[in-house]
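hey can u check if this looks right to u? its 144 residues, i copy pasted from the old doc so theres a chance i mangled smth
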Amino acid sequence: MSRFRDFNFKLLVIEKLMYGRPRLLPVYDLPGRLAERGIRDAASHVLRNGLHEEVLPESRAHFEALEIPAELLARVEELCFDAGAEVFRHCAPAWDGEDDLFDVRSLDDLALLPNLRAVTFVRDGVLAVPDAEEIFAARGIDTD
């Protein structure tokens, strides 16, 4: 199984495989898991407990342990560096996108995606890698 160096980069890959279409990984549903414990509103729960500025430990543990087979990584042809990714809601349900909690700081994991052909940047996105466009261009990856 492939090992990711940048947890936030891995989350964007998970976004594509778990919450995109077609869904290629079983969905992790944090609100559903919390509801099983009697917590009806995930965002209110994390705010009340001072957990709003971090990835919830149970979510981090799940996504860090998630093994993504090379065959699935090979199916990733595009990624979007968007602060509004659904996977972030399952990690930090009250995150407001105003800090660097989910910033991708390394593109070393690009090597795990042999068929990545395009990336999309969103103005308020989560890519915090200097010279990222040059790195993508050197790998023949189109940028929008």
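The first helix runs from residue 7 to 19.
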